[in-house]
Design goal:
Length: 197
């Protein structure tokens, strides 16, 4: 029996650490075979924003593809997957997906995910948002795409940046019914309450 597969994309938007933590948590909470696409600009962002190298990030996946490898397995609908997550998702990538412009493997794999009716989760990283960004997100949402932008939560009283990152990734995993702990969930006891709320 073949393992379930999840496609993960990391685009060049800021917030590369979100995608890295997603891969790490997927390895912890799922037996899925991880297929990874890292865009050329994501490689630069990984170097700029984190202590990881692109090679270390690629090693977190079972299979890794170059962004220009349009003949890769994940570019075909006959290659079965559970769906795809792009975290973070740049406005360029989001626009390409919204308009069917399969210029690289990130956009093509997302297009395949859409046409096959599989779950597609996009985590756009941009602020402020202009009307074009919002219209593209609305267009995709109407097609069933889950738009899950990184939004920090504070009701769980995060103590460090890692708490905020993990909370976001856990929310993304929720879209696939995957559990990676109860980090920051509503109703969970906060890590030590001080003062009035």
């Amino acid at each position: 029996m073949e393992r379930p597969r999840i496609v993960v994309g990391i685009s060049g938007a800021t917030g590369a650490i979100y995608g890295i933590r997603l891969l790490e948590l997927l390895r912890e909470c799922s037996d899925a075979e991880l297929h990874l696409v890292v865009s050329r600009w994501a490689e630069e962002t990984i170097r700029l924003e984190t202590d990881y190298t692109p090679e270390q990030v690629r090693a977190l996946a079972d299979v890794s593809y170059q962004a220009d490898a349009l003949g890769a397995a994940i570019s075909s609908g006959s290659f079965r997957t559970m769906g795809m997550i792009i975290l973070p998702c740049s406005m360029k990538t989001l626009s390409a997906i919204a308009n069917g412009y399969d210029h690289d493997l990130l956009a093509r794999a997302a297009d395949v995910t859409l046409k096959e009716g599989r779950p597609l989760v996009l985590c756009p990283r941009e602020t402020p948002l202009n009307a074009i960004h919002l219209e593209n997100m609305l267009k995709l949402s109407r097609l069933g795409v889950r738009i899950v932008p990184p939004m920090p939560s504070f009701y769980h009283r995060p103590r460090q940046i890692e708490d905020l990152i993990r909370y976001q990734v856990v929310r993304v995993l929720d879209q696939f019914g995957l559990r990676a702990g109860e980090d920051g969930r509503w109703g969970a006891a906060p890590a030590e309450s001080k003062g009035e709320t």
